[in-house]
Amino acid sequence: MEEEKEKAGLEIQEAPEQQAAPDDEHQVGLSDAFISEILELLDHQYTDRIQELCRDLSAPDSAELLIKVSPSARHQLVEILETVIQPETFSYLDHEMLNDLLEHMSGAHVAAIVNELESDDALRLIDDLDEERRHEIMRHLSRKVRAGVEEGLTFPEDSAGRMMQREFVAIPQFWTVGKIVDYLRAASDALPDKFYDIFIVDPMHRFVGAVTLSSVLCAQRAVKVDTLVSDEHVTVPVDMDREQVAFQFRRKDLLSAPVVDSDNRLIGVITVDDIVDVIDEVAEEDFLKFGGVSGSDITRTLFSTAKSRSTWLIVNLFTAFIAASVIGVFEKSIEKVVALAILMPIVASMGGNAGTQALTVMIRALATKEVSAANAWRVIGKECMVGLLNGGLFALLLGGLVAWWFGSLVLGGVISAALILNLFVAGLFGAIIPVTLSRLGLDPAPAAGVLLTTVTDVVGFMAFLGLATIFLL
Questions:
Q1: Is pTM beyond 0.70 here?
Q2: pLDDT average, residue stretch 455-473
Q3: I need a labelling partner for 132 at 20 to 30 A (CA). Which of 101, 250, 306, 373 fits?
Q4: Is 301 helix (H, G, I), strand (E, B) or coil?
Q5: 294 lies in a domain?
């Protein structure tokens, strides 16, 4: 065997600590050296060694390994690590990659993974599949998991029902602290892997209240649990949007919250780790939409990525023609005063950048609910004033520079006036566009940038070239 390794020119080491991520307490994620070693072993088909190195990888590390290799290597690794990789690994993969991997796995294998996942992760994995593949895998699920998945799929997309866990601790309201402690010890194998609160229900399983684990542990055994219930408890309706749920967690500093149906019956729980994922996904989604791209572009195929981006590029091309048509109106002015062609991009560019600043602030404020009908006009007014102040400042700088450069005070005054006007418009529309789109029930992230760029380009060119035509010609 050693001779074969030497012939192959591959040096196999005993996985030093700095290479294997699980053994390095200071390494966050996998090192590039570790991934390179796995790929080198994969090229030479040393499957036993790959299994040995990956056996102790955590689910996030295993997911990172799959994300950072090519699709063909990814499929090989999943096949090699079938008995080693943790089921939770698949919950860290995006929709495109997950579907690609599951297409090459048998229904029984996928079902075995789903059966081992927590109920919320199991539902997410099944939900990401296409309809035909979903039905195939559902047939192989255990009765309990299948029932939970089927129920979860009936709830609206991006609702609390889709993200809740069905594993929670609920007790009758007449229990004492001592009985709760004894129950938790006796039923330790049946309890959720992690939980923060104990929920109290009535005989009809309707939610009554919640007590924290710390309250239970600090109380005397004879104390009745209903005396420990806080009056300020928060329940989450099963159909509440996930962004609203995240807002409740942030506002109330929650670690977990019970999910109830229309009859106030306790049916699930949402924990803070789920909320962190939601906040991360929503922020990433808005950020990517702002640029007209997708989070899966790193792992998607070349043509799929190009196709997804072409939509917004077509829109941008159309809006660019609008701006170009404005320039065309002043074609004769530009021919007579060549300096206009040199300077006009400055006005449009400054307006675009200033508008983007206002736009970014407003989209974030809408997402975090810092802006509503109560204060929207005050915030819009502030952004307009910021535009005016910055416009005045940069008008003095740019106007003076242009007057010195081209020896024309009139040209300096024209570009100063155009800049003040465009920065004011940039602040106004940078704030008002996302508010308007939000009021119309539209997502401001993907569309606002294109609309704003069109406005600042058109106003910038129109103001500068129009004023120049009036005062210079």
A1: no
A2: 90
A3: 306
A4: coil
A5: no
